[in-house]
Amino acid sequence: MNFSFIDIGIVLAYLVLTLFIGFWLSKKASKNLEAYFLGGNKIKWYYLGLSNASGMFDISGTMWTVTIVFVYGLKSAWIPWLWPVWNQIFVMVFLAIWMRRSNVMTGAQWITFRFGDGKGGRLSHIIVVLFAVVSVIGFIAYFVEGIGKFATTFFTWDLSTTIMGLHLTSAQVYALIIIAITTVYTMKGGMYSVVSTEVLQFLIMTVACVAIGIIAFNQVTPEQVAAATPDGWTNLWPEWNLSLDWSGIFPELNDKIGQDGYEMFGMLLMMMILKGVFASLAGPVPSYDMQRILSTRTPAEAAKMSGITSLALFIPRYLMIGGLAVLGLVYLKPELMKMGADIDFEMVLPMAIQEFIPVGIKGILLAGLLAAFMGTFAAFINAAPAYLINDLYKKYLNPGASNKKLVRYSYMSSLILVIIGLAFGLFAKSLNSLTLWITSSLYGGYAAANVLKWIWWRFNGMGYFYGMVGGLVASIVVPPTFRIFVPGAIDIYMFPITLLISMSASVFGTLLTKPESMETLRKFYKQTRPWGFWEPVKREVMKDDPSFVPNKDFKRDSFNVLVGITWQMSMVVLPLYLLSGEYQSTWITLGILVGTSAILKFTWYDHIKNIE
Question: Of all residues in the chain, what percent are helix, strand and coil, respectively (each to 5)?
């Protein structure tokens, strides 16, 4: 790529600034573990929300999303339900409030708050730490694949080398360099550094996203989009069998759809909804999203932080994604066809940037995309050491360790996790394979036990332990076994099997062991105030405190979740309709966005303002 000195200067200035912020904040962050991992619960909720939005704006996920918009058009808006993308709505409506009331530092500490410190609680505590570490390693591997592909499109120097007998491509070397810079500033500045740099990154990304949206709107006409896409590309509504036929326009895309396994779109959507409800009700996995919830000052601010995350994230992000997708569709077909049998649609994003973005804006965009990667990566490597140091080392090995030693060991654990994640990332097949394994298999094993922990009083620590072990084992064993009988099946179709195994292990493990002490259950229920099947515990709490008011918001929360999912979906499709030239649908979607926002103002926001 031909970079101007302006573009290079912008990128270098950004990298220097992030390192400066990390070292500048290192003194404040190194006071103790609370300061290092939670910012001392002093960071304002809207900064945490913008930080969270930036952390979700990762480069690997953006490359993947540009690809699916390119291939599937408006129907691609449903595919991120694989994560599920609307778990943030469950968190916003009620789970953030429940979680923040615990006043703990990590998800593993929260497990002790829920199940006590007996055998079941300790085993559950350890298994959550294990899950957190495995998931972070998986995500680090996922990031390595994406940033390497991205970097080689922009930086043309051949850095391939051999280290200790291992041949590293240029993409892998670029990934190592960028990851090294990110690791250094995150290790030094902790949560203060992560949030400060991510707010800066969010501002850079927003400018870049709006710029790309304007460029695409001006350079691509509705007629060009229609000529470059098959019938149904601009149709949002799902169908049982995907009818997109690229045969006369871009036949290789039919092969891509077959490889993805999305032809039976109706079945895919049903699986995503099934998984989405369970995975969302389970609450945030023990990673950066949960850490920001626990970093807020109050439960009400935790809910507002989760709300602003969705509001800040989707419209800017999809302006960029939609813009790059339509530019690629109209202008990049010859370049993609040159790849022949090895065509890689995940390269649409960097190729579109290289081709269409002018000097100056290109530097801002590249800095912004590096920021997106670095922000998400930093969030993970700041979150995971909290589990190793606070939940293992401090709890079991050295309870009297000094703050200086704990922070120093946090640096070391960050470095070790990054090295392990890099080792896995160097052998990853593709972004799509990593995405599907993380979202469908690994998180499938997390759902059952973590739903029951909120809603069923009898569920105990041993049940949680067996459920999580069953889920983790199933997430590793089920996919290869299932594919023996159904070759080529994608991981989402295995979710019901993984869920059934994990749920069975959870229920049997619970019923075959003693319940937790009523004292532990009373403390959890009174402080957290969840709805669900808590009647025996509720009676005990109200016997001690007749003034206690139980949670009766199940119907309100369910309504707000449905409205919230619609609200979030409208923010996803609004830029896509606009940039594909579907102006009538754009106005309808804008009306839905305004209407759902007004409803949530009265049914959600006004309700949480005074929550404690």
Answer: 80, 0, 20
Cα 488 to the center of its chain, rounded Å: 26
Sign of CA dihedral 506, 508, 509, 515: positive
513 in any annotated domain? no
Pair of tokens at residue 126: 């350890």
492 within a domain of the structure (yes/no):
no
Spatial separation of the C-alpha atoms in residues 297 and 228, rounded to whole Å: 50
Structure-token pair, residue 497 = 């099997």
Is residue 88 domain-resident?
Answer: yes
Residues written for the chain: 612
The sign one gets for the Cα dihedral 558, 563, 567, 572 is positive
Q: CB atoms < 10 A from the CB of 485, how many? A: 7
Residue 480, domain member (yes or no): no
- Global pTM reads 0.83
CA distance 292 to 348: 32
Structure tokens at 341: 């049998």
Cα Rg for the chain, rounded, in angstroms? Answer: 24
Task: Write out pLDDT tens, residues 549-605.
Answer: 999 999 999 999 999 999 999 999 999 999 999 999 999 999 999 999 999 999 999
533 forms beta bridges with 456
Are the C-beta atoms of residues 377 and 144 closer than 8 Å to each other?
no
pLDDT tens digits for range 405-455: 877 777 788 778 777 777 766 665 544 455 555 545 556 667 888 899 999
Counted domains in the chain? 1
